[in-house]
């Protein structure tokens, strides 16, 4: 059983964070300073302490008397995008007969990657039984699935020092999709390969198995292709012949490997001289986020073509997702990318077998690497030996040394996180 002070600390934090406004915290600081300087009732600063304490007490009592009793209705969108504000109109209804004053909204348990915009909106007065609407705007700064907690409706009447009211509304969860910048043209070596199953891989667009003629039956062929009318006319088994299905399948491989760093090893960035810990997630995360954004850019460019796109991404879980030709939409790809996390053990051990099973049907492979080492060189060589076209994109930090270009590896392109985040890439 936890001691009593474990329950006291959250309550004190609630009083400090919610009950006191920023102005109320400054008043509390002044009261503490005045109290520390009061060694006797004869010292004038004692009167300052009593005045500030009395003002805080009066605000608390008045706020308790006029605290709002309201209900809140409204729901944020289930999806948002990085850097794009998402808003909802909340309907606030006063359930009491007396009016309430100075209504405001505050979100106390927002994730650190969310920012509440226009937090100083105020409803000066809401009469008894009346309803009004108030906008709540939040801006996410990082992709992922987040629980936004509750939004609290409170009153700061009379002097914007103490908040009063316990009405709250649950915001639920929001999936933040990665931001990306479209490119004008995607230069990839595209070809077609025969796809077993043909039209089952796609929707009813593009090529379809068209009838091109008849021929004699070959033992082992499916009976559903038999043409019984021709068989009766010629006196021997005849089958219908259809055009084989050839599609362009493109595999998009997303590297999520960020090695763990060593806390005792420090390094300096050449540009600004700031100390950092190499290999920590805080240093490798921008590269992963840039790679995810670049993967979204490539998926967006391929969504307008007649391609089948297979996404391979390994983090704590292995993601294999197929889209293109209306089998799935770009938004479904973004949902997968928004939940991809960093992997501190090399994920190629789980990606390579899954890719090797599909290389015989894949036309082109696009690899997004966060680094370059022997396992990635081996994967690239395996792809080339299978007859697939290959395009490699390596994402690195702006201050990191660029690895030497691979003379034997085609389409080896190096991009920095700044280039991807600024969106200055027209042709990829």
Tell me about this structure.
The structure is a single chain. It is built from 9 helices and 22 strands. It has about 425 residues and is α+β, with helices and mostly antiparallel strands. It has 4 domains: about 55 residues, no CATH class; about 110 residues, Immunoglobulins (Immunoglobulin-like, Sandwich); about 25 residues, no CATH class; about 180 residues, 3-Layer(aba) Sandwich (Rossmann fold). Helix 8 links the parallel strand 20 and strand 21. Helix 2 runs antiparallel to helix 3 and helix 5 packs antiparallel against helix 6. It is elongated.
CATH architecture classification of the largest domain:
3-Layer(aba) Sandwich
Count of discrete domains = 4
What would the principal axes of the Cα set say about the shape?
elongated
Query: Which quaternary structure do these chains form?
Result: single chain
Provide mean pLDDT, rounded.
79
Task: Count the beta strands.
Answer: 22
Question: Major β-sheet, in short?
Answer: 7 strands, mixed
Q: What portion of residues belong to β-strands?
A: 25-35%
Annotation field: number of helices:
9
Rounded to an integer, what's the Rg over CA atoms? 32 Å
Structural class: alpha+beta
- Range of helix content: 25-40%
CATH class of the largest domain: Alpha Beta
Compute the separation of the termini in Å. Answer: 60 Å
pLDDT < 50 stretches: 203-207, 262-282
Determine the CATH superfamily of the largest domain.
Answer: von Willebrand factor, type A domain
CATH fold name of the largest domain: Rossmann fold
